[in-house]
Amino acid sequence: MRLKQIKIINFGQFSNKTFDLPSDQLDVFFGANEAGKSTTVAFIKQILFGFHLRSNSSPFFEDYTPLAHVSPMGGSLVFTAADGEYEYELERLYAKGDKTKCGILTVKKDGQVVPESVFFDQIQNIDGSFYADSFIFNQEMLGQVTSLSQADLLERIYYLGAANSSQLLQLRDDFAKDAGKLFKKTGKKPEVNRLLKQMTDDREHLTATQAEFSDYEQLDQKFSAQKEILQEKQSILAKLQKQEQSLRDLQKELGNYQNLLDLQKQVKDVAFDGENYQRAQDIMSQGRNLQKTIESLKEQLTELTDSSEDLTAAKELIQQKPQLLQWQAEYKACLQKGKQLKQEKEQLLTLTPDIEPLLGYDQAQIKQLQNDYLALPKQVDSAPQVNNTNNKFWYAAGAVFAVIGLIIIITMGMVGVAALSAGFIFLIIGYSKANQQKASNASILQKQQLAQSKREDFKQKYGLNSDTLDLNNVLTNLGQYHLKESAEADNNEQINEINQEVAQLSTAVQNTLKQPVENDFTAVLTALDEVANHVDSIQASQQKKASLTASLKQDEQDLKELGLKLKTIFAQANVENMAGYDELYQESLRQAKIKTQVNTLKESLGQDLAQLKELNASELLQKLHKLDQQMEAATSEISTAQQELAQLQVKLNNLADSTAVFQAKQDLANTETNFINSSKEYLADLLASTWISRSLDIASNERFPKMIAAAQEYFALLTGGRYTGIDLAKKLTVIRHDGKKREVKYLSRGTAEQLYFALKLAFIEQIKDKINLPILIDDSFVNFDDRRVSYIEKLLKRISENNQVLIFTAQEKLVDQLQIEPLTFTKGTQNA
């Protein structure tokens, strides 16, 4: 499986973050400490195998409940199969109230939801612990190795091939530790040591108490001697019983041997290809899924209404929506224009009220008005006031001169006469001027009366005051008023035309929808939207039907192709159908079981197999009969010895009935009981520790040699060729480039870590055909120097040929050396 995309919804410090991996072989994530690298590693593991919410145990920190109070927790991973044929999406989400605490997992294969087993069957249904132990390299797990002693580190390396070796080693050490607490060879405080010492003390106390019972001691000696005799006879009987048991075992093995012969007759070769059978099962599964999909598509097609409605008219109506909007805009503009024209007319009447009487005049009447106005006499001005003033001047001057003349005529004679004459002359001139003025004023008044009469006639005829009338301005504004009226009429006509168009469109829409539609823009627009929705619905239904039909056709074709593939596989297996293939599979299992039974019986019989081939059943019965007689005689002797011993015991009990002796015996019995119980517990812990060690030896010996070839290559790369081989003879040793061997316990810790690193990668290499998942390396090279980092670069490129490798690092040198554009984390932000 190759990881293609990491999509984090909410996890730890991340929210809504997506990583699209550029390569399916080697990808690098770069960022400072606390930037989110380990968070991403834990996210990948937990999406695969379940969240760790405090109560779950883990070899490294995995509690990444979102820092912000957001929900849900989780995200998804997108994998592509190694051959690129399928794409799997695993989405795991956890929200408050999820009792499983592991999150709800949804698995999709090529976009279709499938059972979880479809994915996990591809990786042999491993669990999170196996993935962490085998595919994750980080400081915590490496620290578990570096914190061990050299001997413990050797064990971890040796037992790497065994599943759950770390837990078993810990369990073994716990049992050994418990056994050490119970007994030590030179200890005093452990329970067994203490009870052994107490038992000795109790015996000494009993002996001291019985010192006064000499008879008891003598009798006890006899009792001991008789007991030894009994034990000797029992030993003889035990040997006889052991011999009998051995013969009985051979007798039983005769039956097993006969079973072995029968089974060997049943063994036969079965031509069965497991890979083809698995492919056939996969094809059958795909076929069932396709069949379900086809049935679902047919149901969906059945549910779709068969709409063959002609949408041409409806589409034409929808296409008129822009025109309707244009009419609406024009209608609003016309209404606005009508209001404006009305205001302008009212403004003209307000500014030029003289046009109102002329509104009904035609062109001839206007022409007559102009002629009558032009024929009006001009207005005659009144007599100038200055003439009256001049007349008064002459009168005044004449009076002055006359008065002066009368005054000075006596004194000055001629001068007075001259002044008086001048006065009279002025008076005559004044009188003459006054008469002329009166005549002129009378003529002007007559003209004014005539002009006023004509103007009054003009006003009565036209209703206009000719004195204040500006005929040109009035006629100009009258023309403007008539233009406004004409524009208003045109505007009203346009409104009527728009209303007619809208009414026609409303009728057409009403006929299409089969429901009444009012003749206003809003109602018609709404109705057109309903028509559009109806058309969209019909078209969507038609498109969906076409899509479903195409999908159905493709699925049926795929199903047919799967059937052809299945027939090909059946032909290769020489079976007619899957039932026959299943029978062939069961027969192969039966043969495998028979062969296993044969091998098991051979191993069980072991060295006795050759003896059983030559064994005579009658001779065996004779030997058993002879042993039975010997055992019967030995049993009789033991019975006699036991009776004698019982009699001695009765005598001892009669002698040892004092309180002190009884208490001493009781104390000794209690101590012996406690000693036996503690010894059993000690032996149980010791046996469990030994059994676990032996089990690990067996598991490692089965898998470890298979890892050696790949591990040697990786170890050579990691050490720059300083070590070229790994030898597993009596002890695990490594071979230097000069051919010398070196035990692991003498390696430096760094080299031992490299060996452990190489062996883990070799283990991954061994299982790649069954379990191929991304290798996650989280800053596991922190303690590597530059030289070792250069070696690790070669190894990573070698490993990435078969397994996808994701490196999470804060080392810029490693990023530069790998020459890969990294996916970068930014420290201190919610999203890296």
Short description:
With 832 residues, this protein is of the alpha/beta class.
Q: Explain this structure to me?
A:
The strands form three sheets. A six-stranded antiparallel β-sheet has the order 2-1-4-5-6-7. Strands 8-12-13-3-14 form a five-stranded parallel β-sheet, with helices on both faces. Strands 9-10-11 form a three-stranded antiparallel β-sheet. The protein is 67% helix and 9% strand. By secondary structure, it is of the alpha/beta class. It is built from 23 helices and 14 strands. Among the domains are: 1-126 and 772-832, P-loop containing nucleotide triphosphate hydrolases (Rossmann fold, 3-Layer(aba) Sandwich); 333-489, no CATH class. The radius of gyration is 63 Å and the shape is elongated. The model has no long low-confidence stretch (mean pLDDT 79). α8 packs across α18 (608-614), α10 (312-319) crosses α16 and α15 (471-513) packs parallel to α16. β6 and β7 (112-114) form a beta hairpin.
**Helix and strand composition category:** alpha/beta
Query: What low-confidence regions span 5 or more consecutive residues with pLDDT below 50?
Result: none
CATH superfamily annotation of one domain: P-loop containing nucleotide triphosphate hydrolases
The CATH architecture category of one domain equals 3-Layer(aba) Sandwich
Overall radius of gyration? 63 Å
Number of E-state strands: 14
CATH topology of one domain: Rossmann fold
- Sheet-strand content, in percent, reads 5-15%
